Amino acid sequence: xxxxxxxxxxxxxxxxxxxxMEHSVQALCxxxxxxxxxxxxxxxxxxxxxxxxxxQLPRLxxxxxxxxxxxxxxxxxxxxxxxxxxxxAMRETAERIEHEPQVRADINIALKEADLSYEGGIKTRHLxxxxxxxxxxxxxxxxxxxxxxxxxxxxxxxCQTNRPFGIAGESFENPLYLDKMIEATGATAVPYAKKVxxxxxxxxxxxxxxxxxxxxxxxxxxxxxGAEVIVTPCPVCQLNVEVYQDKIxxxxxxxxxxxxxxxxxxxxxxxxxxxxxxxxxxxVVSAEALRRFA
Amino acid sequence: MADDQAAGRTILVVGGGIxxxxxxxxxxxxxxxxxLVEKEPQLGGRVxxxxxxxxxxxxxxxxxxxxxxxxxxxxxxxxxxLAEVEAIIGQEGDFTVRIRQHPRFVTEKCTACGECGKxxxxxxxxxxxxxxxxxxAIRNSHAMAYPxxxxxxxxxxxxxxxRSLPCPVGAIDPDMTATVLEEKVGSIVWATGWQPYDAExxxxxxxxxxxxxxxxxxxERLANSYGPTAGRLLRPSDGxxxxxxxxxxxxxxxxxxxxxxxxxxxxxxSMKQATYVxxxxxxxQITIYYIDLRAMDRYEGFQKKVETDPGITWIKSxxxxxxxxxxxxxxxxxxxxxxxGIRYADSYDLVVLATGMEPTSATTARVPGNNxxxxxxxxxxxxxQVLSSGCAAAPLDVAGAVQASTAVALKAIQAAAKRG
Amino acid sequence: xxxxxxxxxxxYKNSEMGHWIKMCKQCGVCAxxxxxxxxxxxxxxxxxxxxxxxxxxxxxxxxSMWMCTSCYNCIVRCPRGLPITHIVHGLARYAxxxxxxxxxQVTNRFAxxxxxxxxxxxxxxxxxxxxxxxxxVDGLASGIKRGLEMKDSALGMLMTKRLNPIPIRGKIKGYAxxxxxxxxxQELEAKREAGA
Amino acid sequence: xxxKKIGCYICTGCGxxxxxxxxxxxxxxxxxxxxxVARTHGFLCGAEGLQMIRDDxxxxxxxxxxxxxxxxxxxxxxxxxFGTPLLDRVDLRDKALWVQDISAGKEAKEDLQMMAADxxxxxSVKLKKMNAPDxxxxxGFSRDVLVVGGGIxxxxxxKEVAATGYRAIVVEKSPALGGMVAxxxxxxxxLPPYRVLEENPIQGLIAAVQGExxxxxxxxxxxxxxxxxxxxxxxxxxxxxxxxxxRVGSIILTTGYNLYDASKLDARLGYGVSPDVVTxxxxxxxxxxxxxxxxxxxxxxxxxxxxxCAGQRDANHLEYCSGACCTYSLKQALYVLEQxxxxxxxxxxxxxxxPGQMEEFYxxxxxxxxxxxxxxxEQVGKGASGGLSVQITDKLLRGKETLEVDLLVLATGMISTVDTxxxxxxxxxxxxxxxxxxxxxxxEYRQGRSMPELKWGFPDSHFICFPYETRRTGIYAxxxxxxxxxxxxxxTDATGAALKAIQVVEAVAKGAAVHPRSGDLSxxxxxxxxxxxxxxxxxxxxxxxxxxxxxxxPLFNPTRCRRCGTCMGACPQKIISFANYSVDMIGSMxxxxxxxxxxxxxxxxxxFACVNDAIPALDMVGQKRGALSPYVRIIPLRxxxxxNLVWIADAMSSGFDGIMLMGCRHGDDYQCHxxxxxxxxxxxxxxxxxxxxxxxxxxxxxKMVEINIMDADQLPTIINEFAEQIGSMDxxxxxxx
Lengths: 294, 420, 196, 737
Known about the structure:
Shape of chain B: globular
Distance between the termini of chain D: 39 Å
Strand order of the largest sheet of chain D: 15-21-16-17-18-19-20
Largest sheet of chain B: 5 strands, parallel
Radius of gyration of chain B: 23 Å
Strand order of the largest sheet of chain B: 3-2-1-11-24
Oligomer: heterotetramer
Mean pLDDT of chain B: 96
Low-confidence stretches of chain D: 426-437
Structural class of chain B: alpha/beta
Radius of gyration of chain D: 31 Å
Number of helices of chain D: 19
CATH topology of the largest domain in chain D: FAD/NAD(P)-binding domain
Helix content of chain D: 25-40%
Helix content of chain B: 10-25%
CATH architecture of the largest domain in chain D: 3-Layer(bba) Sandwich
Number of domains of chain D: 5
Number of helices of chain B: 10
Mean pLDDT of chain D: 94
Shape of chain D: elongated
Distance between the termini of chain B: 20 Å
Largest sheet of chain D: 7 strands, mixed
Low-confidence stretches of chain B: 1-7
CATH architecture of the largest domain in chain B: 3-Layer(bba) Sandwich
CATH superfamily of the largest domain in chain B: FAD/NAD(P)-binding domain
Number of strands of chain D: 33
């Protein structure tokens, strides 16, 4: 059993938009032997869109509080995040605490108001990095019980899992780990030009049509390349690409009905987990195409 | 005077490209003894892979040939090919260097008659053409090669066929092993030059992923009648004639993600390559994407000349990325024209990345021991035991490399005259 | 007067990562990298030159900064290593704080008011409330209209237990400390932004 | 001198024995050509074969070698190191065997045999006509180096010359050393991390030069005249009323640059209108004096606009880029940003040109707040609060903008101070060009007092592969006198020029040529009694090597000579020759070719090929096993410039049916290593139709082509099409005679 401090983020809460991710992540960890110790009483990371309301320091302070709590509760053990935005916000905060003394000092002035302090040092990691680096491809493949042979999946890495930090060792323009994950389950990763395209992110809320146009291009590319399902590591990507398909069909006269699932769901399914373990019942666009492997 | 000083005072020149050749020949023609060490089987270095020089659009072989003649006529120059300097001990005026000479598997008896090559059935990827074609495992690296003396790839030397190759003069020796020499030298010139920046590292441009994204050095080989297409400008995916072509400047240069410095020659090289295209395809459309056109000093005349070509579109823009049309395999260049503010997504038959110069002294040709000072890019600069010239010292065009190497030849003479 | 540097110098000093604007060499990579590029009135590169040119009104009243999806494409490609995403966020914030940004600009309104208000009110995002606030921001009628447009999706989310039927969420346990922390941070931030 | 004894060695390896009747060749050597020693060997370049030759040299007294084997591309160490200058290589393999397909049958084999026999005959007669050169010597040779110009280039050159153990003489026209750089404040970075301005090195350099016993300095001095030649230059140095004469071996021209006259610039730039518009040099002097102020009212200059390309890259002013001004202006921007409180520097650029590691310096200046603007100055007016109001076109903000600044600095460009003459306008016959004594060197050369220019007034001759070469042997230009360049590059350039200056005096001492025929000991001589004073040789020498006496006879300066043979080619009287290269030698080779009788219907085509490009290209044809017409016979020439028209007549009267001349490209982008050789050959050839008409032959029988070293693939077509064309004509009627 490997233990990590865990920051699930707001979308992974019960009845939140990435509840399916959280559920499948837990199932995945159980199979692999990972214990995720959630930070008690964590707060929102403020996400990238937090810049406008929060500015610099309040925004960074929010992640700093989570670090401080993590250190109090779990010492310096690696902190794992599953949400792209949370992971990015925490990495950014960690970097600025490390490299900018003024920021570190100011953050601590603010943290003091909550009787906390944090000087840096906890390593923030994406769950994907844990799987690759701490377990390795062979271990991931070895768990496969029901190879997803014949399944054509388009790996959609998106933005914030990929930039500006990215999964260690991967290219910003053509990261390969997600394709390798798909292949590790026995499925086929379709070649696909939009794997790091943007889904609109938070602008899906405000610039709906512009963002929907981005997602339309993305879906079209997946369809053109024969994908039956889109697989992603990012809750924002998952939400935007899955939930807005109706809207897109309405706006552009298209007829998309593309299931969009998390890599964790794919693994759980291939590793012999149930439909429910994989939280595939929690898809807005039905993932029935995968039922044949359940 | 000079002859007296030359006694026992050898100048070691490392690198047999245009810089090393120049330093060696210029020093030897003053009357000094020169040991020229080249790691490849033949001299000429990077320039020998070029089709033409700007601005005169003439062949590098022409100037190289004169330098080879100067070597042939000058007994003071000793050339060691397939050789690398492993260790440097001592100081200016009194160095001992250890040189490893890799086996050539062909002895100096070779008359370059070509019989072995005819019989050889092993084809290997051709490094001289950047792997764009295949070549015999026993060969000369290129037609104008000097010394005109065949060599054999090490892998092939271990094969059974290598032992049975015909040679009228018995020059083939697959059992040849490396030898290590120790030499006393008075001064050392590091002239190891540059390598093209690895275009695969420039991920947004898709080299290696997109079939029809090439590089400037590959394009030089394509244009060359001795190159993989016998000089025809054809695109890799389907052999189609290149009628719509883009050159992208600063592909890897002036970029903190890659080479932070300017490689100096790429703007002019692309202008020159535009003339290759025009020569073959009078109706071709050419686009050059650039940040700043750097046709320094008199090269401005060349820029002005190329600018008279109405078929060239100049776009002040560093493209953001290159996509590929999945069906036609046309590369699509995407970016913003900074003078109009208009975004573009233009497809081409071929895109040529003007990749920059990475000093080999930063990677494969480090100076042994603590004998060199480097700048943060890996160029060998003033302050160490060895002198440096050409593109081992700074990104330079050929004339600049010759100029610097002539100067360093004098510094090497002065240093060799010091008593250690 | 053009190229009066007082605005630029204030931005360099008081806008997040603003000092990096000095370093742009106007290559255009950022503009070509942006997913919503065509919708920007001024591309990042142009914004930077406008800042240097002293074009305060043009910059701060522009909707450009609000078009950033935070995809970070520009940041990883910029050959001068400018943290463009952060610079643009900083400029947006600057425009908002200094009162130049149109308060009705949809993203401005959402980011500065709705989203931030949502997270600081409890310590975490309340997605349902966030969505409702967003839809009803222009009043009841248009809110209902927007809500209806998305009703199938919302229903889907509800049915798959990915949307909380109870929009109000509870506060985090340490909310008092959290609020005090935010207040302190905001106080320091305000000082910094004022150029103190 | 001992009698010549020729040994002929025919290699039978590399398939020669299988393709050729070697015994017949051997017989030609011994019986027909009457060579005292003629041998064959199956592996001549092997240890045994070479020993055989060495034994003959030792035991038989052989002192001239005819090696009939492969081409000069291979085996030079083996075949060309016997220590005798009397050597010729007959290329039976690469240019005969390899370009003939003998599988075609008996006739092909016979053709090849004839070709080989002819080449052997030509080699034999060549060697018979060849004498060992006697190197030119003079007791008065000097190894001292004259440096003209006492700025950073000249001082560097002198210092480097002295540091190598030679004496230098510096002549500076102004009262003090230091030149332009002495007027400057600081210099741009040359060392990592390329971010920091460096202290001006000039004072240290002046002190070093003044403290060096091997350097003699003349200030307030000009060159009244330069007579002589490398090793033997006599230079009259005028200082006031005193004229001193110095004998030097070589000369380095480091007179630097003048700035383009800012008052000639477009009025919109405002120079001369407001005192607050200054040139970059004026600004430099202000910075040096610590006076960065508005000249109009003495107020501190806080906002400074630098306009790069003030006249450069402009067809109305300087067509070229000055190379260094972008970096130079960035340096000056840093003066403003570092020295002035609240200083602001704006760089109005066209193309920001900071090559190489200077990109980092560009970054530094931006980091310090320097603002870049792509655009042009439109109008300069008076500012609201003094200073200037400058209207510009702003290409990045896409519009017209107005900047209030304290100073506008115009980065004017560099003009070479070397007086040059356009080589494309040769001086009229009988006159010395540039009679005015304006020239820097005042050369007493037949072809004029000035240096021939390459382009835009810069005096070099070949700026890619051999940038130091000029058309005046032993005179090298360095620094901005040679090409626009900045300080760091000037220091490098001057060091390189110092090497070339030393190299030439060492070569001269040995009687040897410098580039491109480095080491060649031959030099031209002439038979005075045959001279008609036509002056073609003195006019045509690309290097101005030949002067004239009062009667118009040529006066050869062997140490100026580059041994190209252009004089020999020019001479209608055939009286100029080298010990080992002469009109008679080539003429005899032509006559040695056995021309088949007309009824054999086998034409003969003579190819004169330049050894620099055409011969290597022909070697490549062999290496690639291209097929050439069996009727061609190739004669290498040192340079097409040495082609004497009499050979055309010789060949035609010997029965050749066609002649092809292969020279290097000429014109603006010439590749001729002797600059004018191939161009002159073309001019001469234009007169050949007269000769042919006199012989009642078609002028299409003679053709000149430009051959590039990479033309191996085209050569078979070029040659074979010509051969076909000649074949389709009637055979040369002179065959019968």
